């Protein structure tokens, strides 16, 4: 099972590191990272493996949010993207 | 491989454009609860609803957490209660109390099915139930009621239409200290669908399985912002195409949630109702979609054509996205629940007559319209008859949910709060229709050939 983490907000030092460590703390393996700057905003999408996470998905989201409090973070199951954007 | 832009699009839809699952509705058949003793029957109803739906809210919340999509409402629809009254006799309001108590016990926010199907005539229990509706709605909190008074195959039961004028007025009157909310929980249908998950008109038709999960998706905000990105001179076929694609994506999400809910609950998945259901929140309005297409304000000339296109494109996109589509499916135009409609009604651009025309091309009918408190019951019956005639002749569902604002006059406003919104009292004709309504009887079913 995979989940998609999106992180959007003002660019600053260490976002990737903080989010990645928060994932590691809950045993979520980071599989892929894409990032870019859109309209001056830092925008990162991570695909993580949630097969072995040590807490519920909404708790993982809460701890990711706590790791970078200034950023907007969403954690969503990959099924939702697959069903919306694939036939 | 997931596409970066697709991911951001989905996030924006949920975060900024109010994309949500509007409702997961569990349909429960109560036919096996029928009993000749009304108290025993009510006990069976309570037990069946609380047993079958005990996990509904918890499962809904777990899906919300898993997928990160809001599921706004969890609801229940049941077999039309008139069928149980037929067997048990007695005061039908007892069933309303049993349903209300069951709804509170399982934590849902509405339970629909205090209903009767009388399109061709009254059978045992129907009259008693219809007459008890105002009391049932004023004495309970979560019970919703509907009555089907006509169909394309049966014609319109004008005796029932006559009764419903009084029932609507009385439902408002008994709840006049509470914004006349009783009338907002009562829908009068022509061609009522048996699998509609949306309140207040939801009931579990006699042809449905024992228990079933139906899902209603929403997303007017998503459609509007997709259209906002089109150039102003894009031809309407491109507009329709874009609506279709957007409806596809919205519906796919509903399909995912519905399938998951049915698996977790161990209940078969019924249908997706792919209606664009507005809320009073800014940016969640069907009227604003019509304005985005190119109308200065909803209700002006061109509104019916724009709505017809919108309604059709939503269906075309949704049908391909789902394994099974049903319910009302299309675009809803409830006046008090739609920020753009409220504005248009306040400014006088949107009239009841225009709304009536709009209902000929969209999915429901005259919905959540506040009318003057002194409106005669026969005038309400005449509004119902007009609307039912549109449904009957065009082989589509139409409905009337008008709220007589007791004690208020044209221009004043009712405020229900929450999803039901608020709205101004709209102007009606004052000339009487009472002679026609007093005739009663039946309007025969229309021809199905020689369509002109």
Give a written overview of the molecule:
- The complex is a heterodimer of chains A (87) and B (452).
- Chain A has one domain: Alpha-Beta Plaits, CATH 3.30.70.260.
- In chain A, 34% of the residues lie in helices and 39% in strands.
- Chain A is built from three helices and four strands.
- In chain A, strands 2-3-1-4 form a four-stranded antiparallel β-sheet.
- Chain A is globular, with a radius of gyration of 13 Å.
- By secondary structure, chain B is of the alpha/beta class.
- Chain B folds into two domains: 23-190, Anaerobic Ribonucleotide-triphosphate Reductase Large Chain (Alpha-Beta Barrel), CATH 3.20.70; 214-443, Anaerobic Ribonucleotide-triphosphate Reductase Large Chain, CATH 3.20.70.20.
- In chain B, strands 1, 2, 3, 4, 5, 6, 7, 8, 9, 10 and 13 form an eleven-stranded mixed β-sheet that branches.
- In chain B, strand 3, helix 6 (126-139) and strand 4 form a beta-alpha-beta unit.
- Chain B is globular.
- Chain B starts with a helix and ends in a 9-residue tail after the last strand.
- The model of chain B has no long low-confidence stretch (mean pLDDT 92).
Uncertain runs of chain A: none
CATH-level-4 superfamily name of chain A: ACT domain
Number of strands of chain A: 4
Structural class of chain A: alpha+beta
Helical coverage of chain B, percent range: 40-55%
Multimeric state: heterodimer
Architecture of chain A, according to CATH?
2-Layer Sandwich
- Give the topology string of chain A: H per helix, E per strand: EHEEHEH
Estimate nothing, just give the exact number of structural domains of chain B: 2
| Major β-sheet annotation of chain A | 4 strands, antiparallel
> What distance lies between the first and last C-alpha atoms of chain A, to the nearest angstrom?
20 Å
Total count of domains of chain A: 1
